């Protein structure tokens, strides 16, 4: 059931009493009163309605992953959760020696030193050295030259690292760009070793993650536009960035029910004001567009005694009840169809 229906449930319960007074003999034909039974009316309009569904999500950051280091020893400093680390800055320190963030798509899978085979990982290192101001005579290519060796030594000296002229995974971590520290997996005083995760990091771009019920998959397509409501009421447009292809069981995730979900990630058109991670949000998904339909304000619906809904049509100072079939909900309006209903007719609504 869509939230629009839930929102008017209380209204319909109150309206049921009014409707019962209008009903004669159990059918939906109303007795014509001497005066209108309502003092406020709204027009039946013809328009397009967009059927929507609102689902829960969480505001988070893109590209979350765990990282480790080949360094062994005692953690003497670690970046704070929520902090941003950029190129050339330490992610943590082990035995007071930094593990430095450098930019690149290739992991540091081998020691880089003079004599190593040429490769794109060498070029990646040289590009970082140049960006950090080392090696004025350094040529950025795939060859580890003597100029590269001197630039590495100067970088190591400035960072308090052993001046070996060799870079390995005990000294640096290559990541595509600046990162945000989501969680520190170690604390000062902990012992660490190769293969042990030390930090959970993410990119700096905000996104919304939704665990979408598999029954609602038809509501989302990659690239589709959505509206996200953030804590405090801020509303931001967004776009579906990725849809998972593997269904996850809620019971397997400790949520205690039999539902299954797929991952949906949504990018936002602008940066939200809140800096909270995992902040709860509501995502409005567009289900279907109904074109050129008759529509009335949602509050014009009345609950019929025999079930279903009706509207109170007011004409020539008299009111009559007409049973209707409802369709799409959107923007506070509801699609209706019923015998004799036309655009421009007036229907009763509660006074504001």
Structure description:
The chain is mostly beta strands. The protein is built from 4 helices and 24 strands. The protein has a 6-stranded antiparallel barrel. A 5-stranded mixed sheet has the order 10-9-8-6-12. Strands 5-13-11-7 form a 4-stranded antiparallel sheet, with no helix packed on it. Strand 1 (23-24) and strand 2 form a beta hairpin. Residues 1-37 have low confidence and may be disordered.
Which strand-content bin applies to the residues? 35-45%
Sketch the topology as an H/E string, one letter per element: HHEEEEEEEEEHHEEEEEEEEEEEEEEE
Give the C-alpha Rg: 32 Å
CATH architecture of the largest domain: Orthogonal Bundle
How many domains in all? 3
- Based on secondary structure, the structural category is mainly beta
Q: If strands are numbered along the chain, what order do they take across the biggest sheet?
A: 4-14-18-16-15-19
| CATH class descriptor name of the largest domain | Mainly Alpha
Count of individual beta strands: 24
User: What low-confidence regions span 5 or more consecutive residues with pLDDT below 50?
Assistant: 1-37
Task: Find the CATH superfamily of the largest domain.
Answer: PGBD-like superfamily/PGBD
Task: Output mean pLDDT.
Answer: 86
> What sort of overall outline do the alpha carbons produce when their principal axes are compared?
elongated
- The CATH topology of the largest domain is what? Muramoyl-pentapeptide Carboxypeptidase, domain 1
How much helix, percentage-wise, in residues?
10-25%
How many separate helices?
Answer: 4
Q: How far do the termini sit from each other?
A: 26 Å
Tell me the major beta sheet.
6 strands, antiparallel, barrel
């Amino acid at each position: 059931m869509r939230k629009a229906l839930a929102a008017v449930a209380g209204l319909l319960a109150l309206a049921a009493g009014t409707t019962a007074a209008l009903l004669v003999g159990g059918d939906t034909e109303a007795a014509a009163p001497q005066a209108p039974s309502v003092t406020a009316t709204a027009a039946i309009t013809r328009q397009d309605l967009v059927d929507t569904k609102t689902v829960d999500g969480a505001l988070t950051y893109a590209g979350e992953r765990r990282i480790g280091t080949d360094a062994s020893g005692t953690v003497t400093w670690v970046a704070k959760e929520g902090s941003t680390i950029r190129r050339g800055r330490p992610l943590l320190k082990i035995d007071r020696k930094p593990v430095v963030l450098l930019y690149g798509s290739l992991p540091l899978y081998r020691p880089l030193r003079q004599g190593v085979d040429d490769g794109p990982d060498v070029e990646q290192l040289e590009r970082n050295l140049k960006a950090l101001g080392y090696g004025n005579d350094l040529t950025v290519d795939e060859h580890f030259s003597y100029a590269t060796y001197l630039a590495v030594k100067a970088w190591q000296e400035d960072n308090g690292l052993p001046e070996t002229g060799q870079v390995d995974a005990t000294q640096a971590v290559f990541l595509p760009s600046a990162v945000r520290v989501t969680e520190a997996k170690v604390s000062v005083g902990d012992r660490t070793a190769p293969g042990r995760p030390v930090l959970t990091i993410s990119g700096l771009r905000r996104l919304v993650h939704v665990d979408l019920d598999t029954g609602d998959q038809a509501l989302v397509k990659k690239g589709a536009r959505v509206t996200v409501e953030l804590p405090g009421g801020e509303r931001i447009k967004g776009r579906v960035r990725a849809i998972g292809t593997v269904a996850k069981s809620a019971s397997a995730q400790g949520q205690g029910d039999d539902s299954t979900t797929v991952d949906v990630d949504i990018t936002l058109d602008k940066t939200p004001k809140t800096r909270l991670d995992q902040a709860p949000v509501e995502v409005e998904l567009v289900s279907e567009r109904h074109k050129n339909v008759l529509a009335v304000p949602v509050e014009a619906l009345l609950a019929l005694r025999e079930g279903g809904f009706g509207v109170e049509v007011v004409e020539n100072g008299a009111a009559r009840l007409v049973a209707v079939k409802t369709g799409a909900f959107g923007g506070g309006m509801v699609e209706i169809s019923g015998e004799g209903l036309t655009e421009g007719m007036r229907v009763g609504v509660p006074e504001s």
